[in-house]
Amino acid sequence: MLHIDKCTLSIRLSELRDVRELIMLDHLIWTEDTAPAALSWRSSEDFLLHAPPGSQLVALIEDELCGYVGFGCPTGMKSNRHVYEIHIAVHPDRQRAGIGRDLMEAVKELAAERGIRKLRLRVLSSNLSAMSFYRKCGFLEEGRLREEFYLGGRYVDEIFMSCILPQASNRQEDERVKEE
Fold it and tell me: In the record, which residues are listed under signal peptide (predicted)?
């Protein structure tokens, strides 16, 4: 299990006890400014169907959840299992303090340990600060769906970005394939 301590910041895999705080953070972060539609979970059960324990790394400062990065294979296809699609959220009061960067480093480390070769994400072209952050974390634009969404009275592109991780060792790759 991955566990990183930096001063008072700790990062670990999500657990069932985190659900309430993760839902609250999602409602705070995923608005029409940052996503095609505001995110609203109907219940804890609904949330858990989409984000079961262990599918996110959570960042905590003195036991208070302040951010997360979710990850998972984007399709069920064997040929695509070397890819994780990720999404990241940091509480607005804790942004620009290095938590997002630490979460990105942690998910890269976890992905490499699991034999994942590529991380990918989606971001709205109107979210310039997120795009800048992703570039600083080593992500490059791979594609763009022009005028994909109509938000706030204007058309917004959806941008696909990715980061290729150092090649996983053959042993890690073999272990991952055996698990299938």
Answer: none
Q: Give the helix/strand (H/E) hosting 120.
A: strand 118-124
Burial 123-140 (b: 16+ CB within 10 A, else e): bbbbbeebbebbeebebe
pLDDT band at 99 (very low <50, low <70, confident <90, very high): very high
Query: In this structure, are residues 144 and 158 in contact, taking their beta carbons and an 8 Å threshold?
Result: yes
For range 122-142, the mean pLDDT:
96
Could you tell me the residue range of the domain that residue 167 belongs to? Answer: 4-179
| pLDDT beyond 50 at 76 | yes
CA distance 74 to 143: 16
Mean pLDDT of all residues in 154-170:
86
Q: What is the pTM of this model?
A: 0.85
CATH number at residue 50: 3.40.630.30
Q: What is the pLDDT of residue 156?
A: 96
Instruction: Name the helix (H) or strand (E) containing 95.
Output: none
In the chain, the number of structural domains is 1
Which residue, 87, 81, 88, is CA-closest to 118?
A: 81
